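WARN no homologs supplied; continuing
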Amino acid sequence: MSNRIRLNWLNNELAERAAAIVAGRLEPAPARDAATVIVIRDPIEILMLKRPGTMNFAAGAYVFPGGRVDAADADPRIGWHGPSPAEFGAALGASPDEARGLVIAAVRETYEESGVLLAGTPDGGTVLPAGAGWTADRAALNAGELSFPDFLVQRGLVILADRIVPWARWITPEAESRRYDTRFFAALMPPGQTADGHLAEADTIAWVDPAGALDRARAREIMLLPPTATTLGEFARAGDTAAFLRQPRAIAPIQPVVVASDGEAWLEIPEGVVYPL
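OK structure emitted
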């Protein structure tokens, strides 16, 4: 296992950006806050989506549901059940307000992209988002005709923060023009719910065995970004899922670096990160 990945896909623009940043001629683009959720069911399988080839970012890659934080994720009307935003912030290196927005974005994006709803009743009960009304609401959310805060308020739902575990933090390399500071969360699949993809966000949605997905990536049958592959490697080594999620975690930001060496471009992942491909 190596922490240096050859970037066969590197283009001249990215190479030039990396060199300009190192030389001090260019400031890195700011990294926007984003959130993603590792949804797990037993025996260990993880929900993954294949991004359409037309997407601007990570086209064709298999990813977890997620996306960037929106302004509406700060809406004070959104209810909350479970550990406080301050507790999430302490784990994620964020202020309470930032952490609250990240968790809400994680729940929103997971529902929009996969139909898995990590929200429920104010006393912490789960719901089954099935039926014509739920389908219509989700379509309105994806079309931008219904905001997520309005959706939650109208249905009397709150964020089930006690079902969500802070997991990791990855920051896009400075050489990239489109950058994200992404907090990863893990969550068990809510009982009784089913997952289905939204075609604008995913060509394919599937439950995958982590080790099997890594084998397919090694065989070049699927594409995995380094944060995704590293996360799958962690779950491939897990035993009991619930016990694995309860283990204490120290979350430090992981930011790979684009470097040139002997005429080739590489992505270097920080020491201590077990990269499985």
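The domain at 4-268 is CATH 3.90.79.10 (Nucleoside Triphosphate Pyrophosphohydrolase).
OK
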